[in-house]
Amino acid sequence: xxxxxxxxxxxxxxFTIVDARTSSARTDWLERVLSTEDFEPLPQxxxxxxxxxxxxxxxASAAPIHHSSQSRLxxxxxxxxxxxxxxxxxxxxxxxxxxxxxxxxxxxxxxFNNILTAVIGNLTLAATFPEDPxxxxxxxxANKASLRARDLTQQLLTFAKGGxxxxxxxxxxxxxxxxxxxxxxxxxxxxxxxxxxxxxxxxADTGQLSQVIHNLVLNAxxxxxxxxxxxxxxxxxxxxxxxxxxxxxxNYVRISIQDQGGGIEPAHLPRIFDPFFTTKRTGxxxxxxxxxxxxxxxxxxxxxxxxLGSGTTFHIYLPASDKPAPLAEAACFSxxxxxxxxxxxxxxxxALRTCIHSMLDRLGYEVCIARNSEETLSSYRATRxxxxxxxxxxxxxxxxxxxxxxxxxxxxxxxxxGIKAIVSTGYANNPAVEDYRQLGFSxxxxxxxTLEQLATVLKHVLPANGNEMFGSP
Length: 473
Known about the structure:
The chain has helices spanning 3-6, 11-14, 27-35, 83-128, 135-159, 172-183, 206-223, 287-297, 350-362, 373-383, 405-415, 431-434, 451-461; strands at residues 16-19, 40-41, 46-49, 55-66, 72-81, 168-170, 189-194, 202-204, 228-239, 250-258, 301-307, 311-319, 337-338, 342-346, 366-370, 392-396, 421-425, 443-446, 468-469. It is α/β, with parallel strands linked by helices. The radius of gyration is 28 Å and the shape is globular.
């Protein structure tokens, strides 16, 4: 605003600010800065609307101006447009994640080749020598290797996850161990675990927690270029109401990651979790800031102890859940439940279509396969009012070049509100997995899945149809 036009206007007319999250005006802050005797910083996530109507993310502060006689003359207000800096911060965060993935690429490729060799080798043996008594063992080893590949893939899918955590009651032992081993791919560092079986469960987003563990372990690896051991511990902890930590009293799980590196300079410790602060020549300074943000969103806390020449230990405090820890996934197969009924499956991958058809056929279902949303809608409508009507549909969340599960289900429910639908996806961290009921689905299954897992989901969605055991007459 030119000074001549701004003169005589109220501050609220010139400095129009709103909360970026709620879009509500923040006149309360302006009223406080005009009356307070203290330095008053502007809250975060504030947008200012300039004279032309454009919104700009701003940072600001205000302080009173006093006369030599200590009488108050007015207020000085300083604000700064940080829109570009915030955009740069987002780009730097992307670069930081790519940097970490680059460091891991060689080790991951090595491990994937080992896994694929185990899968291909054992399947080749089973196909070449079908009558050999070792065939079940070969198939079992191929399955185990496939599950290892699944675990590694899930780590890659969840690595870049951010935002509001999708928390659920979780056993932390598996997440800690798998995330640590993921970060150590290709490194000359060994992890020594101390993860008790009686560790309390926590309400956590395991994808985001994996990212925290990964970042801390990767930092430890970089602190030990000559190799060594990383101590990874977890323990139950009861905090008193008057503890030194900025946490309310109660039960917590403490995770500790200790390296044998050279430690951190005392002068750097107060800034170690600041965004963009780094002591590495090629670092972005966002890894530890991301860890801090994630743990804060989990209502926890993260600290560190470091001594020059003696290494560094990071401590993560997470509130323990009052719910029982879920049981670990069974390592062996049990006979899957056999069912009956007609199923319509939407899947765009040819190999998966063949595999899913065979699995459902062996489970006792009649199956119709569709490649996309158009074929799914056409097949459903053609049989809807006949004796060949479908009992349920299984819809892939993402279809190349067309509508996926959510869009297809919306159209199906417009014609059949009571339709039973299962969403299938390879993205275990997609919100549709957590909120499938709110989206209208009756069940969810994440790829890759076993015959038993598919049977369990179908038995849940169609309980009246699942009344035999696999292999029964």
